[in-house]
């Protein structure tokens, strides 16, 4: 069964078809959520929430590309959870507790070598408006048009953000390499 047939059957209430959609796209959502800077222990919750939203709003899905829709939902869930986390941290701070460290922990088991680790750290230091297009373009092989649709920005903005993001990323990686040499 192809993607369109699965989506159609899932829309009609076929739970087996929906389960197949989850199995097909779970790794993509999981990887994108991690690359967006979420901690490893948050990935399962985020991925689960993405598929809950897919299930709830599948009837509203139209002829757009399904993966583009999934990326949008993943990005929105990540933003929602970050907002909620920030609100909770403010509450904790108000009652004089130590705030939770908000820098995503980098798990060595997920990163194959030092270069991957430096790249991941550097990407996480980028502002979201540059980080997300870079992740989508270089790690998820999305075309400019798809990125524009996922982020609801113009094609020229995508190109500009990728160009500026690459320049910033190069500087950040050089900084990380210097730091590593000083240790």
Name the features:
Rna Polymerase Sigma Factor, Chain: A, 183 residues, globular, mainly alpha, Arc Repressor Mutant, subunit A, 8 helices
Q: Topology, pairings included?
A:
Layout: H1 3-11, H2 15-35, H3 40-57, H4 66-94, H5 114-125, H6 128-139, H7 144-151, H8 155-182
Helix pairs in contact: 1-2, 2-3, 2-4, 3-4, 4-7, 5-8, 6-8, 7-8
Low-confidence stretches: 95-111
- The CATH C-level name of the largest domain is Mainly Alpha
CATH fold type of the largest domain: Rna Polymerase Sigma Factor, Chain: A
**What's the end-to-end separation, in Å?**
53 Å
CATH architecture of the largest domain: Orthogonal Bundle
The CATH superfamily title of the largest domain? RNA polymerase sigma factor, region 2, helix turn helix motif
Class per helix and strand makeup: mainly alpha
Number of strands: 0
Biggest beta sheet attributes:
none
Number of DSSP helices? Answer: 8
Q: Rg to the nearest angstrom?
A: 18 Å
- Principal-axes geometry comes out as globular
Notes on the structure:
- It is a single chain.
- The chain is mostly helical.
- The chain folds into two domains: 1-105, Rna Polymerase Sigma Factor, Chain: A (Orthogonal Bundle), CATH 1.10.1740.10; 108-183, Arc Repressor Mutant, subunit A.
- 75% of the residues lie in helices and 0% in strands.
- The protein has eight helices and no strands.
- The protein has helices at residues 3-11, 15-35, 40-57, 66-94, 114-125, 128-139, 144-151, 155-182.
- 19% of the residues are buried.
């Amino acid at each position: 069964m192809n993607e369109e047939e699965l989506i159609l059957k899932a829309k009609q209430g076929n739970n087996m078809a929906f389960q197949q959609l989850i199995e097909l796209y779970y790794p993509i959502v999981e990887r994108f959520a991690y690359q967006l800077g979420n901690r490893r222990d948050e990935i399962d919750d985020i991925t689960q929430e993405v598929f809950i939203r897919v299930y709830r709003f599948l009837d509203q899905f139209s002829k757009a590309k399904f993966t583009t829709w999934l990326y949008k939902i993943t990005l929105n869930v990540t933003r929602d959870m970050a907002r909620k986390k920030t609100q909770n941290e403010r509450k904790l701070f108000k009652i004089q507790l130590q705030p939770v460290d908000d820098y995503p922990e980098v798990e060595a088991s997920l990163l194959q070598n030092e270069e991957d680790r430096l790249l991941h750290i550097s990407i996480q230091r980028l502002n979201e408006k540059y980080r997300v297009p870079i992740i989508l373009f270089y790690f998820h092989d999305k075309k400019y048009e798809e990125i524009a649709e996922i982020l609801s920005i113009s094609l020229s903005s995508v190109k500009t953000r990728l160009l500026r993001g690459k320049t910033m990323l190069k500087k950040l990686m050089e900084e990380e390499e210097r730091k590593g040499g000083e240790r």
